[in-house]
Predict the structure of Diaminopimelate decarboxylase.
Amino acid sequence: MDHFLYRDGALYAEDVAVADIAAEVGTPFYVYSTATLLRHFHLFDEALEGMDHLVCYAMKANSNQAVLRTLAQAGAGMDVVSGGEYRRARAAGVPGDRIVFSGVGKTEEEIRTALQGGIRQFNVESEPELAVLNASARALGVTAPITIRVNPDVDAKTHAKIATGKSENKFGIPIARAREVYRMAADMPGLEIVGIDVHIGSQLTDLAPFEAAYRKVAELTETLRADGHDIRRLDLGGGLGIPYERTNADPPLPSDYGALIKRTLGHLGCEIEIEPGRLIAGNAGLMVSAVIYVKSGEGRDFLILDGAMNDLIRPAMYDAYHDIVPVTEPAAGIDRAPIDIVGPVCESGDTFAKQRMMPPLAAGDLVAFRSAGAYGAVMSSEYNSRPLIPEILVKGDQFAVIRRRPTFDELINRDTIPEWL
Ligand code: LLP
């Protein structure tokens, strides 16, 4: 459920008409709903009630400072994957002891930044990383809390580009080698083992792969405890999917996911961390764009928008489906016709939807891409010298620009021309 509904024939973001935002900031833009962000965070928080837990929002999904502050004030921790994300989380007011650091390629500098600034734990993904972390911690005279990310060799049954839990993926250490690697870690005086980490993929619409992975983690917990390790925390990653298409086959709810966690891992008495990104931010955002032209082609028509693949890359990159709805509600029973919805970028991949059934639209009309709050703005680029589009946050009847549109001068002046030219 989200807070983007039609009211008197116009699409609203909470109590703000989307068209009013467009009139003020121009198109395209992203708009996020505070109530939806908070609703989704609380669904997870409540799903784990009764267990000692922390919901660490995977901020790669949407790392705008205002989004982070909104969630941090509600009690969220953060999952970060770079020095930049660590700094963003801290700048938004997240204390170090609520930040977990994931990622296969943490550099020595990033590790030092987190060790000095304060960190809840590093989720270590390889033996060389263990060695670098140990050396960095010892050089700073501190101990680094760690989990080791295990790769459970489970098929997440999602798009290949976002599946991470199979043995051929670059993530984690093979679960079969876990005992050996934990023994190595225990011998490193700069490290303190606190638990186990696992993350098998993103946009999972079935709980079975989670169940398979978590059962393996439960078994490993007992084995490692028997080996003498103090396994007191389990980081279960993110990955719960969202309904991009309104169909009958809706993905499982956070409450179902929470029940699964309790069922598979509850008996171990561990503190639970989860790292949801998409389910918190995805349906909390729209990308709003205007029609530039309606063009008739050979046997098909094109709706050419002012938003493009550089602003929302998911359709081009993952063949992802996003609902695209007119900002002015179409009259009931109006005829719809198939049309290709495209952006102005000079490649055919700049296609948002093919032969989508749409009501008649004309130049200047506004459309909204639903479920664009996660992996939207954060994955955008300035390809074709198109400035990054603004982000807007709505709360009740107020809205604020939380990242403004850069000027063309700003875009051009980031380049420097060497003296010799
Ligand atoms: N934890 C780790 C270690 C991750 O790698 C990820 C996502 C998450 C948590 C959050 O997963 P979520 O709850 O959002 O599914 N750009 C792609 C998604 C990439 C996900 C990468 N890792 C997309 O637009 O679909």
Notes: Residues 34-281 form a domain with the TIM Barrel fold (CATH 3.20.20.10).
